[in-house]
């Protein structure tokens, strides 16, 4: 196996162990999100690949989907992780700016955005684009950290010599915004994750 793939896998294992040392099983947290999002159907999009932890969870459960990120460098970590587990054929990777997506209107039935919201400079523009590419019978699954989850991320980043930057726009703000756009929102919560599932209300 390629050296780059093996080195990336070692970094993945170290990060997973770091989360575990602070009491967080990241696999279980992502499985919680997928379970609450059921049923999954049609064409699936992930907004914000990052290093690919959620993409790995989706692919491991046998789902085929498209994922995009603005950072090619970050997304490369995701490609290497999926390649290590021989799951890269499940995923179509795209480099996209979430504020101006190249996808046609209404082509995705399920859209995930996991732990991405707090990184966004213009979150409402991204949400508007997600709504635009969502099918009439589709649903949006948004998840971000609970208070304890953000405290955990502060510790993780401090351990790595970084500061975890967080947007002022919260998941609660996005919930209100989606309601003004005619969506019905369901809410769920685990120890570290808050989850919103937004359905278009057909009239």
Describe this structure as you would to a colleague.
- The longest helix has 19 residues, at 3-21.
- This protein has a single domain, classed as Rossmann fold, CATH 3.40.50.
- It is built from seven helices and seven strands.
- The chain has a seven-stranded mixed sheet, with helices on both faces.
- It is of the alpha/beta class.
- Helix 1 (3-21) packs across helix 4 and helix 2 crosses helix 3.
- The mean pLDDT is 94.
Write the layout of secondary structure elements.
Blueprint: H1 3-21, H2 26-37, E1 44-47, H3 53-60, E2 65-69, H4 72-84, E3 91-95, E4 108-114, H5 123-133, E5 134-145, H6 147-159, H7 171-180, E6 183-189, E7 193-200
Parallel strand pairs: 1-2, 1-4, 2-3, 4-5
Antiparallel strand pairs: 5-7, 6-7
Helix pairs in contact: 1-4, 2-3
The figure for the number of domains is: 1
Q: What's the CATH topology name?
A: Rossmann fold
State the low-pLDDT regions, or none.
none
β-strand number: 7
Oligomer: single chain
CATH class: Alpha Beta
Percent of residues in β-strands: 15-25%
Mean pLDDT rating: 94
Principal-axes geometry comes out as globular
**N- to C-terminal separation?**
53 Å
Helicity range: 40-55%
Which structural class is indicated by helix and strand composition? alpha/beta
Q: Widest sheet: strand order? A: 3-2-1-4-5-7-6
Q: Do you know the CATH architecture?
A: 3-Layer(aba) Sandwich
């Amino acid at each position: 196996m390629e050296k780059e793939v093996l080195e990336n896998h070692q970094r993945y294992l170290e990060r997973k162990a770091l989360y575990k040392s602070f009491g967080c099983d990241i696999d279980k947290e992502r499985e919680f999100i997928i379970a609450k999002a059921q049923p999954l159907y049609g064409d699936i999009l992930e907004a914000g690949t990052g290093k690919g932890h959620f993409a790995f969870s989706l692919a491991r459960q046998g789902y085929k989907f498209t994922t995009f990120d603005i950072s090619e460098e970050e997304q490369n970590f995701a490609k290497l992780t999926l390649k290590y587990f021989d799951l890269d054929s499940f995923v179509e990777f795209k480099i996209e700016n979430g504020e101006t997506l190249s996808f046609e209107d209404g082509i995705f039935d399920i859209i995930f955005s996991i732990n991405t919201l707090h990184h966004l400079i213009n979150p409402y523009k991204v949400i508007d684009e997600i709504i635009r590419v969502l099918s009439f019978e589709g649903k949006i699954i948004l998840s971000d950290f609970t208070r304890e989850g953000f405290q955990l991320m502060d510790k993780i980043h401090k351990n790595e010599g970084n500061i975890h930057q967080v947007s002022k726009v919260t998941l609660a703000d996005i919930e209100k915004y989606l309601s003004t756009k005619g969506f019905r929102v369901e809410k769920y919560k685990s120890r570290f994750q808050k989850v919103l599932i937004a359905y278009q209300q057909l009239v």
